[in-house]
Write a structure and sequence with these properties.
By secondary structure, the chain is α/β, with parallel strands linked by helices. It has helices spanning 42-45, 72-79, 86-89, 151-155, 158-171, 188-199, 213-218, 251-257, and strands spanning 2-5, 15-16, 22-23, 29-30, 32-35, 47-50, 60-69, 102-110, 122-126, 134-138, 142-144, 179-183, 203-208, 223-226, 239-244, 258-266. The chain has a 6-stranded parallel beta sheet. Strands 2, 7, 8, 9, 10 and 11 form a 6-stranded antiparallel beta sheet that branches. Strand 13, helix 7 (213-218) and strand 14 form a beta-alpha-beta unit. Helix 5 crosses helix 6. The relative contact order is 0.17. Mean pLDDT is 87; it is low at 5-24 and 277-282.
Length: 282
């Protein structure tokens, strides 16, 4: 059994529409954004404030935000747990108050070295400050939004879909005909993972709760395990890849359902109520 940790962030598909900009006393419009300056519970430390309009550098684009989505990466950054994350975001307090990663919107300005985009382009991707009216992003981290996709739909794609793709294609090395089990198939990463695994030609078993059985089946799952009624670790089936978005099972449980050369890919999970120091790295 091979154990691999993929990107440890799962997506919660929650569309976020920023508020309308206000006008300062001097007549200049100042945008608003949700910011935080201390670690803690989101509702306690997040505040909607007027901020300076961000200025992109030569390799960045300025985005007028139309929609964003919240995911556990934002939750962990706000709370500062597991504590290991503070070595990147600030040991005792956040070094930057900007919040939000997933974004969809319209490019308002581009840096001098930006060649792929122009003002007016509708894009989606990963940015800094997506929980505000304006965000900035490196040109390599955004893409043109598909014509038939709404801004809200596009904002739910970046972290979740890329995490699922990385976990299955790059880490799990899923091949046509293989059997793949997805634990936590109805979450942000899980819903993408079911569809991606099917696109890669795998036979997919999805694990979820009763209320989501029809959802994951509609996404293409070949088999659905309702964890409130049965335990996938006790079944006879064996899998070439187990993608675990929950982290609520022991390694012995996972080993039991893997083939001798099977791969276990862990995507975050198991750290909301776990080790506050290093979380899923423990």
């Amino acid at each position: 059994m091979r154990i691999i940790q993929a990107v440890p962030f799962a997506l919660a598909l929650v569309a976020f529409a920023p508020s309308i900009a206000t006008t300062a006393e001097d007549g200049a419009a100042r945008p608003k954004a949700y910011v935080f300056r201390e670690y803690g519970a989101p509702m306690d430390v997040m505040h909607l404030e007027e901020v300076d309009k961000p200025v992109p550098n030569e390799n960045q684009v300025l985005i007028k935000v139309h929609a964003s989505s919240a995911n556990p990466a934002d939750w962990h950054r706000i709370r500062g747990v597991p504590y290991l994350i503070r070595f990147d975001s600030g040991l005792f307090a956040p070094e930057t108050p900007h919040l939000g990663i997933d974004v969809a919107g319209v490019i308002e300005a581009v840096g001098s070295n930006v060649t792929k985009f122009k003002p007016g382009d509708e894009i989606f991707g990963v940015a800094r400050g997506a929980f505000g009216e304006y965000a900035i992003a490196n040109q390599r981290r955004v893409a043109i939004k598909p014509v038939g996709m709404t801004f809200a739909e596009a904002a739910g794609v970046p972290v979740g879909a890329v995490t699922a793709l990385q976990a299955l294609q790059d880490k799990g090395q899923v091949q046509p005909g293989q059997k793949v089990l997805i634990n936590g198939a109805s979450g942000g990463v899980g819903t993408y993972a079911v569809q991606i695994a099917k696109a890669l030609g795998a036979e997919v078993t999805a694990v979820c709760s009763t209320r989501n059985v029809e959802l994951v089946r509609s996404l293409g799952a070949d088999h659905v395990v309702d964890y409130t009624k049965e335990d996938f670790a006790e079944a006879a089936a064996r899998y070439d890849v187990v993608l675990d978005n929950v982290g609520n099972r022991s390694l012995s449980d996972i080993r039991r359902v893997l083939t001798p050369t099977g791969i276990h890919v862990l995507v975050g999970g198991g750290w909301l109520d776990g080790d506050q120091l290093i979380g899923p790295f423990s």
